[in-house]
User: Fold this.
Amino acid sequence: MSDINFNSIVISTRIRLARNFKKYPFVLRMSADNAKEIIKNVSDSILNANESFKNDFEFYGVNELKSKGGTLLEKHLISPEMLKEDREHAALISKNEDISIMINEEDHLRIQVIKSGYNLDEAYKTANLIDDLIEENSEYAFTEKYGYTTSCPTNMGTGMRASVMLHLPAICMAGKMNELIATVNRLGIAVRGIYGEGTEAKGHLFQFSNQITLGMSEEEILSKLRNIIEQIARQEVDIRYKLKSDKLTDKIYRSYGILKNSYLISYNEFMDLWSNVLLGCDMDILTVNRNELIGLISKCAPYNLLADSKQNLDAGKRDKLRSEILRQALK
Amino acid sequence: MSDINFNSIVISTRIRLARNFKKYPFVLRMSADNAKEIIKNVSDSILNANESFKNDFEFYGVNELKSKGGTLLEKHLISPEMLKEDREHAALISKNEDISIMINEEDHLRIQVIKSGYNLDEAYKTANLIDDLIEENSEYAFTEKYGYTTSCPTNMGTGMRASVMLHLPAICMAGKMNELIATVNRLGIAVRGIYGEGTEAKGHLFQFSNQITLGMSEEEILSKLRNIIEQIARQEVDIRYKLKSDKLTDKIYRSYGILKNSYLISYNEFMDLWSNVLLGCDMDILTVNRNELIGLISKCAPYNLLADSKQNLDAGKRDKLRSEILRQALK
Assistant:
């Protein structure tokens, strides 16, 4: 079982570091001037760091966030917090969208690195690099005893949240997902649906992340998460193998047929069918361009549809446009 | 409305003539020797008529009917009556399967001509030709008062049953089919499902035929049927136009998607989806090879599947093979 392909279960990997600057009060207590200064300092650190960073990052101020926030949210490049209008926010986002630096979110600084597939080490390395760059110019709030201090105590210590998004259709079909969530919760791992906390799981996609940030080193957190993820992935592969049947193949084929041929499709139905098709692809039941398939999640999400079509669309028209995109992409 | 394309509503046309020979008792009372003689006489009339007929017709005796009867039945080339084992049957079937001459069915002779589309005149002309050929050698039972005498009184007179198979999805979707059946019944027109009397209507396909054969000439019967069929076709086209919507397009597209991509499909589900796709084709909602689509009805029917695969298949395997044929045919 050691030759398992984790990339067929793990859709993406995310590392997020929460940091605050020693010089300023926490976000909820800081002044508007503090907020602006922080935005300037962080932007300078990144954009003046070296020529390639300057070209690679895009700056999103309050206005840009207002107009493009929904799209960025659906791509997991910013958090819902960033769409609130109670303070001056900003974000620096790399062009290939794997790095997002949120300024004045819940903390002064949230560094987020997303990698496709199972890439905890690479994501952590990149986050660390950005972290060091910013620290060169502004000292972080840090104590020997508690590590990085954060606005919410649940992030104290490393300030790190490592999360992986897993595609677990077989565990779900076998009715074992609730049991799994309960088990990993007891081990200090949180489980969320595709759009973060509180949202319902769509497309059998689940984010697993460390709940505990204090009293463990970054390496310990990553190693513990890695162990649990790999166990879950093995369980998923195991059940996939047992579920193999003509009925499952039929379900997967039909899902693909509808995805390729609908004329109206809701995001929820799309996600259900999408999950079946990805399962079919990963079980070698059908042949599709896997990267393209994964890209469809954000392409077909409501805000992105609006952004791409540059029109205001009601739900019915969105469903029509979504079908159009799918027919084009999968033909 | 005079430019309506009847071929988009009428799938096929059938003329059937019932005849008995003066020289022999009716089928139920004839001897085994009578039966054999009749088979020989009819076969001789056709096969010795001219060289082209000889090459064009295939003879099916008792043994051939036993082994291939199911397939011929599904193709409407013989009637269920011909599968009974109570007497010596035979059939002469033209290679392109548009003419079928059943010997010792309910009557000594049943001449059947099937044409695709709306072709009452052509079908009647061909049936007449065969009729005349056979009559040259053996005198029919005929009286001045009652016309051709037949085993069952409902066929007396012309002995002609003219029927057309109509595809009426819109009338069905609008919930108007029962009303239509009641109306045409009152006008002396019988309505049956795709596989003859008593079978449930599959794929929104209905056979309309004259109930009355006595007291009217062949031309009067055809003209009356023609009038009614054309009214029904106009109603169907009218409702199709009114039903046009994104929802209907979606239904048609999805039906096509499933038909092209299933891995297991029952005949009933196939017929439902098939009907939607044909509707889509005839409403210019999607592009498919219409002849190929119509050919799928018999290709996908249970007996034909068995015949083509040359294996004994249970329902599950038939459903799998049917999907395979559909994926091949529609790709």
User: Anything to note?
Assistant: Strands of chain A lie at 10-19, 57-60, 90-94, 99-103, 109-116, 142-143, 147-148, 160-167, 189-192, 205-210. The two ends of chain A are 35 Å apart (CA to CA). Chain A has twelve helices and ten strands.
